[in-house]
Amino acid sequence: CFMELRQLRSFCMAARLHSVSKAADRLEIGQPTVSVHIKKLEEEFGVILFDRIKRPIQLTAAGEALARLSSPLVDGLDALLTGNVIAQQEGPVTLGAPHDIIPDLLVKPVAQFRKTHPSTPLSIRSGHRNEVLQMVRDREIDLGIVPGRDQSSDLDFTSLLPYERVLITPLGHPLLSKPVRSFAEIAAYPLVLMEKSSYTRSVLESAFRRNSLDYEIVMELQHMDSVKQYVALGMGISVGPRLALREEDSADLGVSDLSHLIPTDQIGYVSLAGRPLSRSVFNFQDILERIFRE
């Protein structure tokens, strides 16, 4: 994981103002975002930078040392950015995300970005999770917003929110009468799933194979909205992300928790480790963190 300028910027501002909340106001980002930036620096250096018991907060000895070194650097780099010396300061932003993330997760941050940065070009590409990760590696996109924490050394993953899978059935289905205790109970019914390369389907089929279970997929579709429609018609049951469910779906669908069978994962944004990103991309990252962490 590489230390980022915005993390140092948050630290230096909090050190200067002796307040995380005041630093957030000055930088025009959320207070939780500033806290996360400082926490990441502490993890990177293996030290505590602030004495948080005292009010206002005070720098520790390690924090004072980092502030002396980093404050002139941050001020100088910000001056360069303000003076348009860095050519990519307000460059375009290119995102990638799986098909079910784009309608369910990206609408709000994209709307906010278009409102606050109307002149910055923004484009979005879609693909399965592994395809999006490859787009990041090939530098075809700046950020990938994907489910599932990635441990690859060449990618940086920043968590945004939990990614929980649930059982989706027609109303009145027998599996709704009690908690689902095994994958065998799910495999016993016809399945309506996303297409083969989708993340949740890969996780589910891996579990079936580990348990030597036979199963029948009666439909495979490209979008969770289509999956929900055919489940409601009684074609079968499904397993999908909770974030794909809306309040109005309760009129036609039943939902059962599966976190004891499929551990809750994380959705986050992924960038290529060590790749310089434009200020515009950092602005979009800050919007993502402000929306989903606060």
Instruction: Output the radius of gyration.
Output: 22 Å
Work out the number of β strands: 12
β content, as a range?
15-25%
Q: What is the N-to-C succession of helices and strands? A: HHHEEHEHHEHEEEHEHEHEEEH
In helices, the fraction of residues equals 40-55%
Mean pLDDT: 90
Query: What would you call the shape?
Result: elongated
Biggest beta-sheet profile: 5 strands, mixed
Structural class: alpha/beta
Strand order of the largest sheet: 4-3-5-12-6
Write a short abstract of this structure.
The chain is of the alpha/beta class and about 290 residues long. It has helices spanning about 5-15, 20-25, 30-45, 60-80, 100-105, 105-115, 130-135, 185, 200-210, 225-230, 280-294; strands at about 50, 60, 95, 120-125, 145, 155-165, 165-170, 190-195, 215-220, 240, 255, 265-270. It is built from 11 helices and 12 strands.
Note down, in words, how this protein is organized:
- With 294 residues, the chain is α/β, with parallel strands linked by helices.
- It contains 11 helices and 12 strands.
- The chain has helices at residues 5-17, 20-27, 31-45, 61-82, 101-105, 107-116, 129-137, 183-187, 199-210, 224-232, 279-293, and strands at 50-51, 58-59, 93-97, 122-126, 143-147, 155-163, 165-170, 191-194, 217-221, 238-241, 253-257, 265-272.
- The strands form 4 sheets. Strands 4-3-5-12-6 form a 5-stranded mixed β-sheet, with helices on both faces. The protein has a 3-stranded antiparallel β-sheet with strand order 10-7-11.
- Strand 1 and strand 2 (58-59) form a beta hairpin.
- It is elongated, with a radius of gyration of 22 Å.
- The relative contact order is 0.16.
- Residues 84-88 have low confidence and may be disordered.
